[in-house]
Design brief:
Elements lengths: L15 E6 L5 E7 L2 H9 L7 H7 L4 E6 L3 H15 L14 E5 L8 E4 L8 E6 L2 H14 L7 H5 L6 H4 L13 H15 L3 H17 L3 H19 L10 E10 L2 E10 L2 E11 L4 H13 L8 E3 L7 H12 L5
Parallel strand pairs: 7-10
Antiparallel strand pairs: 1-2, 1-3, 4-5, 4-6, 7-8, 8-9
Helix pairs in contact: 3-11, 8-9
């Protein structure tokens, strides 16, 4: 095969995607750049990357195609599409078949309820997680229903019954389907459940103590006893949870270890200061670490996964601004 000769003037200085191909026309690698010429020059220039594992890829290249886009974010989206279409040998492949479990709460409903889901959509609902397993999320739900008895089933289904469900009889549903709780009181339960899921335990306890005191002063002793039991249940739950790190944010912490072409990445999921799960990935990668990190972020958060407030990285990835904009669009709000 005739060695590929890179000519910088053949490539635009605009944002876009590049496809490195072999002599059979098969796509070896798909990448993106805010400046296509500058990115490609970094591979082939006189002061370009001389590492053996990078040269190994470059020696296979027969030609490079480029597609110009209007913005870096458009380039990122197009890159994802082309990787899925061509499945290039040298692009990242996580080989991870694990789906992540989250809790969904649609606050637009009159009587919202918590739902277990494995898909996170930008639909206006609140998502909490990920949880380590379906068992972990069910245990969390069990604790929440014991303290804040939200409904379990669709309202229409429950209203067809002549009496409240079994969960109401054991104190784990407040019975909104049969008018056994007011809209305002149910919203207080929802606020408490959200605060608990966000790790704001002291705020919930303070609120419940105030309501318990008011109920006691009004001689509503059954209500005061119920609130007292809620407080005790929260305090017992908090004792079992060790909190580290930042207690007011959801964070994913990503670490990288690399030995030439072998790479291992670890993702730690912190939710309101608690380490809730960890995922490890072993990969083969031939290009620079900044590009590896950018590719990993795209594939990992391109799934139906709850995106946190912060993603802590060992170094800045390529095209950080475009990645932040893409993550913000997927999440529906800012990601640091």
């Amino acid at each position: 095969m005739t060695p590929f000769e890179f000519k910088a003037d053949d490539y635009p200085t605009r944002p876009g995607v590049y496809l490195m191909k072999d002599d059979s026309g098969d796509v070896l690698y798909v990448g993106k750049a805010n400046n296509l010429r500058a990115r490609l020059r970094s591979y082939f220039g006189a002061s370009g990357d001389g590492r053996a594992h990078v040269r190994f890829l470059l020696e296979k290249i027969h030609h490079i195609d480029t597609i110009v886009t209007d913005t870096g974010k458009e380039a990122l989206i197009l890159e994802n599409t082309l990787i899925k279409r061509h499945r290039p040998r040298y692009n990242i492949n996580l080989r991870d078949d694990k789906t992540y479990v989250c809790l969904r709460l649609d606050l637009q409903e009159d009587f919202p309820t918590l739902q277990i889901t494995r898909k996170v959509r930008n639909d206006g609902a609140r998502y909490f997680g990920p949880f380590a397993s379906a068992g972990a999320v069910r245990q969390t739900l069990k604790e929440i229903y014991r303290i804040f008895p939200l409904r379990h089933y669709p309202i229409a289904r429950c209203r067809r019954r002549q009496r409240p469900c079994l969960f109401h009889q054991i104190g784990q549903c407040s019975g909104p389907c049969h008018g056994l709780i007011s809209f305002e009181d149910y919203q207080n339960l929802v606020k408490g459940a959200v605060a608990l899921l966000e790790g704001r335990h002291s705020e919930v306890v303070d609120r419940l103590r105030q309501r318990m005191q008011q109920a006691s002063e009004a001689m509503q002793f059954e209500e005061a006893a119920r609130l007292r039991d809620q407080i005790r249940a929260i305090e017992a739950t908090v004792e079992q949870q060790k909190v580290v790190g930042h207690q007011h944010l959801d964070q994913d912490v990503i670490g990288i270890w690399r030995d030439r072409g072998q790479v291992e990445l670890a993702v730690l999921f912190y939710r309101r200061g608690k380490l809730v799960d960890r995922r490890d990935f072993r990969l083969e990668w031939r290009l620079d670490t900044e590009e590896l990190l950018a590719s990993f972020l795209q594939e990992f958060y391109g799934r139906d996964l709850a995106i946190p407030d912060q993603i802590l990285l060992p170094l800045p990835p390529h095209d950080l601004d475009s990645l932040q904009e893409w993550l913000r669009d997927r999440r529906g709000r800012r990601v640091d």
